[in-house]
Amino acid sequence: MLPNAVVTTFSVKPHRLKEAMAELRSSVVPAAKREPTFSCIALMTSHSTSQCTVITLWRNEEETGSEDVPEGYSTALAELADMIEGGIEGIDYNTCALRFLETHLMVFESS
Fold first, then answer.
1. Is-contact 80 7, C-beta < 8 A?
2. What is the CATH number of the domain that holds 56?
3. Domain total for the chain?
4. Nearest CA to 67 among 41, 39, 95, 87?
5. What span, in angstroms and rounded, lies between the C-alpha atoms of 27 and 67?
6. Rounded CA gap, 2 and 63, in Å?
7. Sequence-distant (≥ 6) Cβ neighbours of residue 27 within 8 angstroms
8. Which domain holds residue 51?
């Protein structure tokens, strides 16, 4: 069974980008790894726009999949609210079903 992906996007206040990335690495990544269905995580940022994209893969425990964002992961991200444009409301989660996975290629499809 292929995992689900959660694509999380948000804009960081420009003067807080370095701090936010450090916090992502020290808090959000470990919180995600503690979730029982965690598979992997990728962090991407644009220094010119302060846009962050986090792609996480989660083992699909049910045949139909789940559209829920794991609580420990979303709680850790919420701790960054003062660094994010728009606070908690500025965090956008998109859950996708992974339809194909190869070593260096991932294709995502919105569910």
1. no
2. 3.30.70.100
3. 1
4. 95
5. 23
6. 10
7. 76, 79, 80
8. 4-110
**Residue keyed to tokens 């598979």:** 39
Q: CA-CA distances (angstroms) from residue 23 to 26, 60, 76, 81, 89? A: 5, 27, 9, 11, 19
CB 56 within 8 A of CB 73: yes
Tell how strand 51-58 and strand 92-102 pair up: unpaired
pLDDT at 72 over 50: yes
pLDDT in tens, 7-65: 999 999 989 999 999 999 999 999 999 999 899 999 888 888 999 999 999 887 664 45
The answer, as to whether pTM is greater than 0.85, is no
Tell me if residue 67 falls in helix, strand or coil: coil
Q: What is the pLDDT of residue 59?
A: 84
Place of tokens 């790894």: 33
Spatial strand order in the sheet of 51-58 = 38-46, 51-58, 4-11, 92-102, 105-110
Q: Is the per-residue pLDDT at 68 higher than 90? A: no
